Amino acid sequence: MTESGGGSGYAGAPLPYMRWLRAFVGAAPLLMTCVAACIRDAQGRVLLMRRGGEASELWGFPGGAMELGESVVEAAAREVREEVGLEILPERLIGIYSSPEYAFRYANGDAVQVVVLFFECRVLSGTPTPDAEEALAVRFFGAEEEPPPLRLCCQAKLRDAFAWRGEVFVR
After folding, report:
1. Which residues make Cβ contacts (< 8 Å) with residue 100, sequence separation at least 6?
2. How far apart are CA 34 and CA 17, in angstroms?
3. What is the pLDDT of residue 11?
4. Pairing status of strand 169-170 against strand 87-97
5. According to the model, what pLDDT value does residue 3 have?
6. pLDDT reported for residue 139
7. Pick the CATH number of 17-170 from 3.40.720.10, 3.40.50.1820, 3.90.79.10, 3.30.160.20
8. What does the pLDDT read at residue 2?
9. What residue ranges of the chain have pLDDT lower than 70?
């Protein structure tokens, strides 16, 4: 996958976008565009991280909300860099996850229905290291292992990561 363009966004764009938008809509349900990264080790295991903050009992793929002025490729690279310290390149789309069943409410009451673009990524450099804020721990998991506690959307992504053969999943 290649990226066209390359601008860093809109001059004066409100960042972070969701926080800016919440000032207008409060806790009302919003669609939130997100990215997630599938990063594999040499054995084909996938990297999961234990989330920080209110979801600290849950694990998931590195990723998060896209900011205004970013492409999905830029968002995935930024989120992975921030959370687990890797430089990556998203190369192929594994799936798109937008089902209302993946909606959730944050502890502060903000409701979201996510639209997640899940990418197969190549590591360019770095060693997986949790940032101790958004990621409390990182670990590679194999298909045969019992997964840690995951949000429903991450459960689907984990299944798809191991079942993926090049066809994009749409869920």
Report:
1. 113
2. 12
3. 57
4. parallel
5. 38
6. 98
7. 3.90.79.10
8. 39
9. 1-15
List CB contacts of 65: < 8 A, sequence separation 6 or more: 16, 17, 18, 32, 33, 34, 75
Q: Which two tokens stand for residue 117?
A: 């673009």
- 160 CB-contact burial (10 Å; exposed 0-12 / middle 13-18 / buried 19+): middle
35, 119 Cβ separation under 8 angstroms = yes
Side-chain-side CA neighbours of 159 within 13 Å: the count stands at 10
Q: How many residues does the chain have?
A: 171
pLDDT of amino acid 80:
98
Q: Are strands 111-125 and 30-39 parallel, antiparallel or unpaired?
A: parallel
What residue spans define the domains of the chain? Answer: 17-170
Segments in 63-165 forming alpha helices (H): 72-84, 152-163
